[in-house]
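Researcher: Next sequence.
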Amino acid sequence: MLIAGVDEVGRGPLVGNVVAAAVILPDKLYINGIKDSKQLTEKKREELYDQICTHAISWHIASASHLEIDKLNILKASLLAMQRAVLGLQVAPNKVLVDGSHCPVLPYSVEAIVGGDAKILAIAAASIIAKVYRDRQMIELDKKYPQYGFAKHKGYATPEHLAAIQKYGPITEHRRSFAPVASKELLRER
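Model: Next structure:
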């Protein structure tokens, strides 16, 4: 049975896409260190990313943009990114296991598992793939806008990030529907 694990990253940040990954791993595959991406160092995630991509039966990364997040809301945009990730797999899964409590609409059997990234290997692998990919996006955005510190805080609402929004204003990629961005934007307009 082919099980696709699905996870997303980037629901909380104030900037950028929400990114989801879907991964189908071989039944007997063992890669030392795969676990919830939040429990790994950046270096270890990078190492595991390459191993997962090499050994997975199929994997796909997809996203929903900051514009889609603002239009739909973050939950619906996250589900859209997950749906896109699963539908982008080159091999059709028999079942999809999603981290969390909500399921995207899919033409496959799908089950939500709260804390799934700590329980299911394929979901943990998806969390690593999605995290590495999104972090790389933030590093690229940092090159374009170094004054915001995206490479360091990855778009989360740190004091440094909020101060940069206050000083420089939001960039195009900021999520206007998120209160900290909306309030800073309103303050700058006065």
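Model: The helical segments are 42-55, 66-72, 74-87, 121-144, 150-153, 159-168, 179-189. The chain has two domains: 3-142, 144-189.
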